[in-house]
Amino acid sequence: MEVALxxxxxxxxxxxxxxxxxxxxxxxxxxxxTVEKKIGKLKYDWGILIDLPGIYGLNPLTRDEAITTxxxxxxxxTSVLNIVDASQLARNLHLTIQLLEFGKPVYIGLxxxxxxxxxxxxxxxxxxxxxxxxxxxxxxxxxxxxxQKIYEYLKEAPGSGTDFNIDYGSLIENAVASIGRLLPDxxxxxxxxxxxxxxxxxxxxxxxxxxxxxKDRLQAVCRELEADLQKEEGPAPLKxxxxxxxxxxxxxxxxxxxxxxxxxxxxMTETIDRxxxxxxxxxxxxxxxxxxxFCITFDWVGAPLxxxxxxxxxxxLTDWIQAGLRQVHAAPFIEDIVINGIIxxxxxxxxxxxxxxxxxxxxxxxxxxxxxxxxxxxxDRFMESVGLNGKAIIPLIIGFGCNVPGVMAARTIEQPxxxxxxxxxxxxxxxxxxxxxxxxxxxxxxxxxxxxVVLSLYLLGIAAALLLAKVFSYFIKTEDSVFVIExxxxxxxxxxxxxRSTWDKGKGFVRKAGTxxxxxxxxxxxxxxxxxxxxxxxxxxxxxxxxxxxIAPVFSPLGFGTWQAAAALVTGFLAKEVVVSTMNILxxxxxxxxxxxxxxxxxxxxxxxxxxxxxxxYIPCLAxxxxxxxxxxxxxxTLFAIVYALIIxxxxxxxxxxxxxxxxxx
Length: 666
Ligand code: GDP
Ligand code: MG
Known about the structure:
By secondary structure, the protein is α/β, with parallel strands linked by helices. It has 32 helices and ten strands. About 65% of the residues lie in helices and about 5% in strands. The structure holds guanosine-5'-diphosphate and magnesium ion.
């Protein structure tokens, strides 16, 4: 049994998915959280459940919506589980009708009944079930209340399909019938549904090869219908006429099934939105919120915790491991790679776990509370002035955590060119991996001004992205922008799901430390251990020194022409944390004096800043580059993303270093 979850965005599909399958997929309070289909096993092994991106109708506008419509057409599945938001019934039922017309068995989960009740609405599930002729279960997906009922429906053998028809009026019905006669059998798809979607202009349906072949005749039916409708009801696009007929039907249902208990008290959400989305206060509030997040992460909570962890790893933990290794008489080579390679490299990155978790906690909070969509709204005007869409702010913010989900979040942007621009620019956002580099250098060179220096790098990344957006948008001409975003009601984030989504994001970082950073570290260590002269050579005679020494002169104009810096940057393509791992290994001093100290001898404050700027901008990491390739489907654009970043990084670092020199800085 394969059940597919359909519903409008932000109606609790993923919450229900997690409830029914026991998984922990990403839940957030804004439209566009799920941008890919997710598959899970139903509890008790009844079959599988497929979570899909939310859609308002089957007529896709965005890439994530197209994923859902394509799924409906191209995949075999047994039944549809349609989540309907009880507090937004009127809008949600448009999708429901199209799903019912599709003809597969449909079950409805009437979700958010708590929210509806809070607004003084009472939805009668029985009347709804009778009108739509399918089972309806009232549920609260967030807490799991009522979800048992859905199991019961699913457990019964799937019905033969829905029997549901709206009367669209004789003109449309005739057109539907004549299209139905023209169509061949296409994998058993419902002909009435195909005809209606065709008339509506659904691009996925229209581009099906079987329909392309009949294009001329089908278009003739459309034109004739339009002409007839015009005579009867005045000029209107077909799509709108069909929409109106559905609206009428929905209004009738709602009149019977929904009772308004106590109307029109201003909700909490409206009150908050008066302030937060205010024309003047909106942007300053957003900036203040970001600043606060920044202070807490780097100054107040995250950094002190990282310090503690650092002291633990480089102190007692190293001692214990060393003692343990000596106890078992490990070969000196082993001790060397474990202590100077792995602990130095991987441990040096793991110390940033606290800061990264604090940052992810805030990002999850912004997502779960419902503030994310407001940010997009208040920033839209500004973003549009640089050629981006207001929604682009969402990938950018997520990009602060990690660029990979940031790039993927661009899927919800309707306009292809704005989406491409956003994908290309998201890697300039300073992700948490880069934070490890800043922390090291800021501690070494800018002790008193750490926070300001780090903040300046974040701002530099944002400024570069906005400026380049402006420049690129001259070449990648954007068409008229559309900005439609749902403002979901605010919710106090549920503690459990908040911690879970923080953990979900943060665990990627920990996993990276155990895999790619671990592997990179071992590799670097070996290259620095071996040289043409054999093993255990002096590090300056190692392969690493020789290879990277050849590249190093390229970086001399930027102030860091040492082979160590070159090695760190080259390996940083794997993941930006590897920059720090590499330095930890290369500057490892056996007498226990810290990396910070070693670094102060190799860099000056100016060259350190220039190095940080370069690290911020120079290249999307391997995982991000792979994601860009996947999202744009184009090697050319991926290459472009890498090359432009290298050029910008080089120019900016050069300017900073030279200008600093001119000003007499060192
Ligand atoms: P999706 O976009 O449809 O996958 O929706 P999500 O599962 O991501 O949920 C959207 C938001 O609604 C999250 O903040 C959930 O915690 C919240 N939510 C889901 N179901 C309910 C519910 O029944 N009641 C309330 N109050 N909130 C819910
Ligand atoms: Mg979802």
